[in-house]
Amino acid sequence: MHKIVLMCGIGVFGACVGAPDDAAGAATSVATSYGFSYRPMGFARITPAGSGCRVATGFDSASNLSSAVTVSCTPGHYAVNFAGLGTTSGADGDGGQAQVTAEGTDNTRCRVMSWGGSTNLTVNVECNTPGGTAADSPFAVLYYRSTQPSSNTQPANAAYTWRPAGGAFWPYWDYNSSGTHNSVTTLATGQYRVTIPHATFINASMMVTAYNGTSGGAVCGILGWGSGYADVECRNSSNQLVDSGFSFSYATTGPTIDQQGAHAWFNGTSADPSYSAALGKVTCSPASVTGSRSGSLVTIIVSGDLGSWDASPFLRASLSSGYGGANYCKVETLTVSGVAPNSTATTTLRCYDAAGTEIAAPRLTFTHVTSDASGPC
Fold first, then answer.
1. First to last CA, the chain
2. 8-state DSSP, 227
3. Which of 78, 255, 345, 348 is most buried (most C-beta within 10 Å)?
4. What does DSSP assign to residue 24?
5. Cα atoms in the Cβ-side hemisphere of radius 13 Å centred on 162
6. Do residues 141 and 80 touch, judged by C-beta distance below 8 A?
């Protein structure tokens, strides 16, 4: 098992690929811990610029720096830097993929503007009001990557793809564990089918985030899925179907694959047990994910034997995508209690349509990512 370093860091970083020219930040404090991952990955929870633009929680599998995850920002524009996660490889899949979920109690939403870097990896994020104005917002961001293997006979247990506006295919940002590339077909304006070859197991984490775009961009959500495919829908702030870029990911175990955590499909009433699962510290140890709704507020609880492999803090973040159309969901709170083998993370979420109107009975996909991989049974 590869040993890596976790960071809760805040700091300043220099110029990097794709970072906003006017980005600025200030160094404060850093907390360091250790964790494990089977693949290059990182995640962070970022506070808004108005509260100092800092990394509230940060994990970076590629660096042992005291501030391995840093952020710079102006209100509404953020550059999150993961030290050492960049790559110069031109191999298929090595561009990786990024997902973002806004946090907070208003209807501000966030999207990925770009990501990349040859040494450090920078994910650029923009947050906007439904009308398109850049807006200050906290958010969670996740990045991971895998190298596309040779074609094999195994079912696909993980996949991701990046579709830019216009629909060009770039194998560097496309991965399928079966060694056969995914594809994206336009069904109609703003509606797309992501074909995931050899993905026969459909109880999986599904995430989608709108990519780039002008005037506040679009909102993208999961329209539905079946064996070997997932449908995506994107709309603008007027709730009209529009062509949009997006980042999409799929994994059957954990939020990426083999990482402790959970995924769920909340069907409007509960976390459907046929399409939801949790992965504990040891593969066969008990872990569960459940969900409920009170009014328009959804509560997802991930509990069981989840925790660090050493004495370091066990870090977490929650992400969500709207389901059934181009809706977006926000994490309002994430609270944690207990320690392994009886730890509990409670996430509350609220969802909105593309125009920013609150959805009374939301459906959503949910992914809970952590800083440590699962071990063998």
1. 14
2. T
3. 78
4. B
5. 24
6. yes
